[in-house]
Hints:
Layout: H1 9-20, H2 26-33, H3 37-49, E1 69-77, H4 82-90, E2 95-100, E3 107-113, H5 116-127, E4 132-139, H6 150-157
Helix pairs in contact: 1-2, 1-6, 2-3
Amino acid sequence: MLNVTAIDPLDARILLALDDDPDASILAISRTLGVARNTVQARLRRLARESVLRDFGQRVHPAALGYPLVAFISLEISQSSGDEAVAGLIAVPEVIEIHSTTGDADLLVKVVARDTAHLYRVTNEMLTIPGMMRSSTAISLAELLPTRIRSLLQAAAAGPQQ
């Protein structure tokens, strides 16, 4: 699991304010929340430094870049070449997420493609990576709920639950 610093209610309120208005200035956020500008600025710097905030690129929809097809590929890998296999997957630009999993598959990989023919090429490219043993692909028909964090931020902003 990732080791990131937990955010407190004020951090969550700052992030919710940015979610409401991504163009808001630090001064505007401080006024909205009723806290000092330096407090908002320091907390945002800390959140960025401690990798709590993700890259801006994660806000760009792959379809806008010409990759409307999303697929999830379950991979079985040779346990002795796990690091090499992951490094090979990271080198494939269409691979946008990799998760180590329990169950039948060792890795769950989220990929994007231009169409099914492109997905076929990407999958075959992945299978040439040393350590890959078997794959199973599921194409996403529709994204019913994009990754959401706002509800978690709202709970964190409310403070600890008794």
